[in-house]
Amino acid sequence: MTHHPGLITLFGSGETAPGAQKIYHALFAHMHETPRVAILETPAGFEPNSDYVAGQVAAYLQKRLQNFRPQTVIVPARKRGTEFSPDVPAIIAPLYDANIIFMGPGSPTYAVRQLENSLAWHVLRAQHRLGASLIFSSAVVLAASRHTLPIYEIYKVGEELHWKAGLDLFGDFGLSLIFVSHWDNRDGGEVLDTSRCYLGQRRFEQLLAMLPIDPVRRVVGIDENTALTIDLAGGQCVVRGAGGVTVMHGETVQRFAAGTHFALAVLGNYCLPDAQAGIPSDIWHTTIGQVAAARQLRGSKRTPDRQVLLLLQERTEARARKAWAEADRLRAQIEALGWRVLDTPEGSQVEALEGDIG
């Protein structure tokens, strides 16, 4: 069976700012089911209040996007070697029922150390291949790169300029990408250049010169309060928010303003790999089984909402008038909302669609 990867949305910053509401609205409106968001604590797992950081995201979505009735769960995969490890199956279990997986603030290098080759990271990627969307912001945008900027180490600790290996999320898709969040940051005002994720343009240019030669590499800068959505299945990208996105390939620099759509090919010659590529076989098959079980359980508990019931009543009336074309149209609307129509001797009924994810 052919699997289609979900959308990947990368925030430069501002994932809980008022202006982000429109970005989430566009993403949620793209879905045909209730958003079920799993929020991974991992990037901020070294902070004593990492649960609070993740909880702020959940509270934002529930309040600002309440029309979509998002379901949120916090996944406390904080640190390897502890009871809250991203390698503990019970800790990461909520990922199997998610159709959106979110990670955000924290340290990019800490996120890489905790997630690289972890159960959580493999399940996240498997879920994405099966159609779940990913939303990353700030630190995890950096960590998803082939090489990541050690911001804390350089900007706050004063270490020499250097790169660290990233999680290389897009490597399996044939892309060599380095993402830089907070691209246009101006916190330093007139006295300190804090663009390029607080490092400043001069230091960032020095860092670029230190990278290994890679003729296909793109550096992607995402402005603050701005998001880049990458549709790997559709081959398109879209910029939303207050700023823009900068794509650097060698000496070529392209700038895409908010509202712009551009071809994924701008980021390189991409490909859609076999669904399991790069994911251990046992984790891949376990994920498929767990997702199917979660979907079955969810379907058995679901009850149709008012919108579905109204459409079903309209269809019953259309059938009574023998308006078959209208009845077919209403059936399609009901199915798009996740319900199958059953015409029985007792009248029309609906049952939850489970879908085929095998």
Description:
There is one protein chain. The chain is globular, with a radius of gyration of 22 Å. Strands 3-2-4-5-1-10-11-14 form an 8-stranded mixed sheet, sandwiched between helices. Strands 8-9-12-13 form a 4-stranded mixed sheet. A two-stranded antiparallel sheet has the order 6-7. The protein folds into 2 domains: 8-289, Rossmann fold (3-Layer(aba) Sandwich); 304-352. Helix 5 (119-129) packs across helix 9 (281-301) and helix 10 (306-320) runs antiparallel to helix 11 (324-336). The model has no long low-confidence stretch (mean pLDDT 93). The longest helix has 21 residues, at 281-301. It has helices at 20-29, 50-64, 89-92, 108-115, 119-129, 139-143, 151-156, 201-210, 281-301, 306-320, 324-336; strands at residues 8-11, 36-40, 71-75, 100-103, 133-137, 147-148, 164-165, 177-180, 218-222, 226-231, 236-241, 244-249, 252-257, 261-263, 339-344, 347-352. The termini are close together. It is α/β, with parallel strands linked by helices.
Topology (SSEs and partners):
Elements: E1 8-11, H1 20-29, E2 36-40, H2 50-64, E3 71-75, H3 89-92, E4 100-103, H4 108-115, H5 119-129, E5 133-137, H6 139-143, E6 147-148, H7 151-156, E7 164-165, E8 177-180, H8 201-210, E9 218-222, E10 226-231, E11 236-241, E12 244-249, E13 252-257, E14 261-263, H9 281-301, H10 306-320, H11 324-336, E15 339-344, E16 347-352
Helix pairs in contact: 5-9, 10-11
